[in-house]
Amino acid sequence: MVTSTHEATHRLFQEHPEALTLVFESLGIPPPEKSDFGSITPDATEIRPLERRVDTVLKFEPAMGESFLLAIESQTKKDPDKAKSWAYYVAHLSAKYDMPVLLVAVCRDRSTAKWAAGPFECAVGPWSTQVTRPFVLGPGTVPVITDESTVTRQPALAVLSAIVHSDDRRAPAILETLARGLLSFDPGTTAYWFEVTEVGLENTPAKEK
User: Fold this and answer.
1) Which residue has the higher pLDDT, 125 or 63?
2) Residue ranges per domain, the chain?
């Protein structure tokens, strides 16, 4: 099911892939530039029988270093079937584009984030043929941003923080800081970020703040 959170993260990463800076820092890769990314179709369907679609797929092609794909999925709850879909997405995209794939799961609550980290194994007895371990952007990995200057420097990361921590007791403080920081931009930019944030908060209590 496509939710508002899916739509918001899709827009965020498609239009502002610099929000993935945390992923690159954790991998020991220099912070990405927007020009390093290209969008490719999220369609992972073969011939026909069953439609399969990744939320967002980005191609990372730096001037120096290894190129790879990022398959980004917004996950709002535990879903045993999704683990099988994720393994398929990674295998299909890697074979189709002949590139390694980094699967990133975006989660709002800690229990879902813990589950999404896997590992998810395709195994027979003690032998694992395939293991899927997503990189999780969740409450434990995305910082709580309550510093206005960080919002003005990294608005994409600040919006991601507000969405990921929308169920946190500190959500009102996070949103207040975000609002103050975003008001420093021109009206059009401010309206854009407010819209992405509002859509991403979906039906969480934080949306009413």
Assistant:
1) 125
2) 4-137, 148-208
Q: What is the mean pLDDT of residues 140-148?
A: 94
Burial of 209 (0-12, 13-18, 19+ CB in 10 A): middle
Identity (one letter) of the amino acid at 37? Answer: F
pTM equals: 0.85
Residues 6+ apart with CB under 8 A from 103: 71, 73, 86, 89, 90, 132, 134, 135
- Mean pLDDT throughout 136-150? 95
Rg (alpha carbons) of the chain, rounded to whole number: 17
Instruction: Tell me which residue has tokens 């590139």.
Output: 99
**What HEC string does 64-112 produce?**
CCCCEEEEEEEECCCCHHHHHHHHHHHHHHHHHHCCCEEEEEEECCHHH
Is the sign of the CA dihedral 63, 7, 107, 172 positive or negative?
Answer: positive
How far is the CA of 186 from the CAs of 59, 75, 163, 178, 183, in angstroms? 30, 32, 22, 15, 8
Q: Which of 127, 157, 184, 116 is nearest to 18 (CA)?
A: 157
| 158 within 8 A of 150, measured Cβ to Cβ | yes
Residue 36: CB atoms within 10 A of its CB come to 19
